[in-house]
């Protein structure tokens, strides 16, 4: 009985320590780091967050995977702290990132939706993470940190006009940004097909083909003298074909040109991006930022 009481007491102490440790870690993350000069030693830690798409907890060796080797991540876990409890706000890009940088449910910042469109699909749109949101990067800047984001953003770029960059990472706490303001859909890789509103694309494509076929048939009928067709009707059908083709072709066929770009801070440096060399360039930029 005494051993049972001792074990229960030990568990309560461990729980109390865990409960105290969580806010302490949060405090160190957000509150450390004013600039230190002179002979005073700067003890503020440098740290790196890695957010990985499509990675399950069971995909990493230190969490039990025995078929895929992840020695470097396993070493990080063995030399540091391995957390086993976490809440993922969403299983896809835009809402999960909004929750990650704000610590709030993405619905509160307008970054969550239902239906077939649950992420930002076009950089030319006005949607994005509101600039008045408090992000962990803003809090770190207030404490003297230099913050950088290398990789994928997918939380919007502009609001009212092209170039206002109100949703850009630079406006939401990141001193430096290099990477994809959009995401890596199949549409960004030549020959890999499409991910973006495929059903709508097919509908618009078929509508364009039907209008074109109808126009061709009526012109043939008119020229053969089988049926008298008004010239105005032919002109109207012609313009409808042009509009239908534009509505399908411009946003979807040219999606790679509009969306699949690379930016350094607020400058577009590659449009469309070259996917084959992207991983090495992102790695190089991250290493340069860490060295700086």
From TrEMBL:
Transmembrane stretches, start-end: 204-224, 231-255
InterPro entries attached to this UniProt entry: Alkaline_phosphatase_core_sf (IPR017850), Sulfatase (IPR050738), Sulfatase_CS (IPR024607), Sulfatase_N (IPR000917)
Record keywords, A-Z: Calcium, Hydrolase, Membrane, Metal-binding, Signal, Transmembrane, Transmembrane helix
Cofactor(s) essential for the protein: Ca(2+)
PROSITE patterns linked: SULFATASE_1, SULFATASE_2
Signal peptide span: 1-38
Top-rank taxon, per record: Eukaryota
Hydrolase is among the record's keywords: yes
Domain Sulfatase N-terminal residues, every copy: 45-180
Family according to the record: Belongs to the sulfatase family.
Protein name, per record: Sulfatase N-terminal domain-containing protein
Organism: Ameca splendens
